[in-house]
């Protein structure tokens, strides 16, 4: 969860609503316990109220489960996207390195050829100079 999600979960309105709900439950339980009713009626009322609370708890648990499932799907999707981006970036870097390596090898071969030609030319010129000097 990011910072915005955390802020949404704990807004003052939601805290107030939770407080009202819990306070209502406590008040209802206290009213039932202190109301002048026979034991059988009191037990029946308590059972009814517990059934309502149980149903509401199940509903909340169901909603929380759905939200957790949605969150898991979102995390899975986002992580898949990140993996794809990383793989694509790696492939781009590898391709760039291969191209750079090929360019360097080509330039080295050209430089080697130029040096060989220059060496041959210098050798020819040196031989010609020696021949000219030896004839003189």
Describe the structure.
With 136 residues, this protein is mainly α. 93% of the residues lie in helices and 0% in strands. α2 (12-34) packs antiparallel against α3 (39-135).
Quick recap of the structure?
With 136 residues, the chain is mostly helical. It has three helices and no strands.
Oligomeric category: single chain
Main sheet: strands, sense, barrel: none
Average pLDDT: 84
Question: How many E strands?
Answer: 0
Computed Rg: 43 Å
* Helicity range: over 70%
Kindly estimate the percentage of residues that lie in beta strands according to DSSP.
under 5%
Please give the count of helices: 3
Question: What is the terminal separation in angstroms?
Answer: 94 Å
Uncertain runs: 4-8
Shape: rod-shaped
Question: Would you list the SSEs in sequence order as H and E?
Answer: HHH
Structural class: mainly alpha
Secondary structure elements and pairings:
Layout: H1 3-9, H2 12-34, H3 39-135
Helix pairs in contact: 2-3
Features:
136 residues, mainly alpha, 3 helices, 93% helix
């Amino acid at each position: 969860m990011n910072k915005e999600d955390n802020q949404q979960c704990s807004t003052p309105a939601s805290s107030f609503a939770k407080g009202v709900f819990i306070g209502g439950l406590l008040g209802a339980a206290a009213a039932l316990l202190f109301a002048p009713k026979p034991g059988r009626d009191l037990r029946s009322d308590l059972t009814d109220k517990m059934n309502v609370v149980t149903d509401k708890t199940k509903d909340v648990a169901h909603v929380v489960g759905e939200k957790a499932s949605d969150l898991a799907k979102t995390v899975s999707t986002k992580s898949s996207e990140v993996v794809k981006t990383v793989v694509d970036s790696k492939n781009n870097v590898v391709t760039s390195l291969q191209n750079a390596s090929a360019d360097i090898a080509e330039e080295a071969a050209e430089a080697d050829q130029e040096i060989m030609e220059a060496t041959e030319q210098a050798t020819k010129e040196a031989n010609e100079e020696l021949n000219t000097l030896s004839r003189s």
